[in-house]
Fold these 2 entries.
Entry 1:
Amino acid sequence: MAFENESSMLHDALVSCKVPEIQSAVESARSAGMPANDIINELGSAMSDVGVMFERGKLFLPHVLSAANGMKKAMEVLGPELSADSGAGAAKGTVVMGTVEGDVHDIGKSICSTMLQCAGFEVHDLGRDVPTPKFVEEVKGGCNFCGMSALMTTTMTVQKTVIDELVKAGVRDGVTVMVGGAPVTQAYCDKIGADLYGESASETTRKASDLAAGA
Ligand code: B12
């Protein structure tokens, strides 16, 4: 596998939860020529390992916050490098994106927003803990995709609530509803009547691009 050393260095730096180590691991991977997409995916999977260590009491909230901070700094550097020819042609479509009400996890959501933007979509990122009426209002204003992130079993139910509110507002049929986040699955997506499930940002971007191209 290419960039094996860089990948394990990135992983070790992220789970150390030390921002300077994460930044220097990202710098070395970049100067070794590792593509930005791969660096972000490596950090993303390491972040899930941080979650497991947090769950097992090996890491505590301040560690997780610091790792999250390191990840955000990496995204600031890598965001512009994400490989896509975003300049070419008209926008593929408009996307409203946000983390649902009651949930402050936004790293995964932000990676999706960045990758969709780089792939040529016009992305309106509403942030985290987005009130349900805000999603409805934005869809009423006109968009092709509505993406909702949820990272907790206690908040993933809000994705269904938003869909119900879109139906009540009579705007459900005009928009493609996308769902994702660590606890979300294809089966859950089908169960709540959403249109697209993305296990990762790259899968989300590929599926949305195919839909936008009418594939
Ligand atoms: C980082 C983190 C935090 C950080 C968040 C920082 C930030 N700005 O986001 C902080 C420290 C603030 C935090 C707080 C809390 N957390 Co937390 N957190 C995590 C952790 C470790 C990593 C999440 C992450 O960023 N993963 C990396 C990203 C890249 O992955 P991702 O989000 O899954 O995103 C990818 C895909 O899912 C997909 N995707 C994501 N969103 C979307 C959206 C769409 C539309 C699509 C198509 C695809 C898609 O693409 C992304 C990129 O590839 C997880 C552990 C885990 N395994 O998830 C726990 C975890 C989610 N947290 C948890 C908990 C309980 C909390 C707290 C309640 C703790 C507390 N007592 O205060 C609070 C929540 C408060 C609230 N109201 O939300 C639990 C949830 C348990 C449950 N019920 O399900 C977890 C699972 C940890 C654990 N195992 O206990 N947390």
Entry 2:
Amino acid sequence: MKIFLKTYGCQMNERDSEAISAQLIRAGHSITGSEADADVMLFNTCSVRDAAERKAKGKISYMKKMKLRNPALIIGAMGCMAQRLGESLLAEIPHLDFVLGTGQLHRLIPLLEEFSARRKRFAAVEPSSDVLEGMGAHLYGNFSAQIAITRGCNRFCSYCIVPYVRGREISRSMEDILSEARSLVAQGTKEILLLGQNVAAYGLGGNVNPPPEDHSPFADLIEALDGIPGLLRLRYTSPYVTYFNRRLIEALAHSRTACRHIHLPLQSGSDRMLKAMNRQYTRESYLGYVERLRSAMPDLTFSTDVIVGFPGETEEDFRATREVMQHVGFEQAYVFKYSPRPGAKSATIADSVPEAVKEERNQILLADLADRIARKLAAAVGSTVEVLTEGVSARNPGRWTGRTSGNIVVHFEPVPGLEAGTLRQVKITRAGAVTLFGTLI
Ligand code: SF4
């Protein structure tokens, strides 16, 4: 069958969709980019914000026309929204054939074959840890690949729906991850991005308390991946700040492959807001972790996630967030305006901050960020940086892009024989708003 697969949401969903595509191809199906050509349409949905759900529902509803033209067409919804809504989504969208939850993705092919034979609508949303090992397939051939090392989350931040739609935190076996990484590198992968809602909690059995200073299975994993010849770079997202103990910091500082960039969600700089969000650290302890990381790796760059307008956020709370962001000097940040998620704990609290105030605070942080980045990039002009080449620039076919270990994008003129996935030195000649420009040396 020809399968059209549309993915919404985060890197975890992207990775799930890649694994599903690889499994479908192995089972003799093909992936098509054309909706008109498809025998099966799959929507891997997101539930992180109301807008994400409305977008997917709108798209699936629009497919009614396709189904009227082709009654044999099969339409399925998967992922976080499918998990959250389950059977009710089938009731809401009568032309939807099945709903597959986040714990059942590894069973797509047998369930699809059964539906093709019997055309009986179903919703499979039972949690299952089998999904962990069943989603390791890859579409090889790219210099960079993602490996999911954990699924789910046990932290229950009050604004977040993830623990309810992705289940309890479970870690894959280290041997399973290493064999997946070895086969990727054998197929030409040079950079691996480790994925998890909470990657640094890897191997801790879902324990949300910070591990002892000398214990970090995540550090063990990084050291084991360092041992794979041919792997040039290792990235990981997202770590929770309280897992950066001495063992992990030392492992990162001495790692051959781990990049000098950490995405370290802050969410707020106000202790009052952090408590209301059920984030298990304070402004001071967060800054303490940043200090420890920086003293071990002075060239480390940071990005972060921040929420503005959480219920009850005052001007003073917002100022505290702004101060912490200035103090850390984040190179990148994803700023989100708070929106209540049905099912998350904070949905029971009145959404008290007016939309206009959320937008104003959002714009202030983005302006701070743009100013800070422009100054940091301008300071890099004249320096030489090492990049991992990525390929032809999406915006300018006459240029290539690469990325520094610090996760800064660099544009440069290619030379004959240049390959993606190679480490090259670039002399920086110009700074753009968010990227650098230079010459290969
Ligand atoms: S750590 Fe918090 S914000 Fe992140 S996925 Fe878990 S519950 Fe959500």
